[in-house]
Amino acid sequence: MQGLKRKLVYVSLFETIAIFMTSLILIALGHDLFYSGSVSVVVSLIAVLWNLTWNTGFEFWEARQAVRGRGLRRRTVHALGFEGGLALMTIPLFAWWLDISLWQAVVLDAGFLLFFLIYTFIFNWGFDHVFGLPLSAQ
Q: Rounded to an integer, what distance in angstroms lies between the CA atom of residue 137 and that of residue 11?
């Protein structure tokens, strides 16, 4: 499976599992089922929209750079920019939606960042194992 179909299947599966898992984590932390599920869906939508926005802007900037390729420094800036921007949106949302302090929301967001690093690695490995590698990696 390649192209747009692959991307749509990828994001649909990734976000559906992510919503389910983050809801369960929030419930395990003592938050209500309705609020946990709702905030998980909203954060998922924000993450997808931010991903599209950030990557479009980053690639626009990247195309105008004299140095080509994506070395460690550029990949680090890309990742920090994405995660930092997402955190700026989700930390206040978590605090408000779940009625917790900003500090608790920062800790929650840091925990989710760690969770998503592991989840993304495992999901990508499994997705590639089931659906094969994209053409760019073959």
A: 18
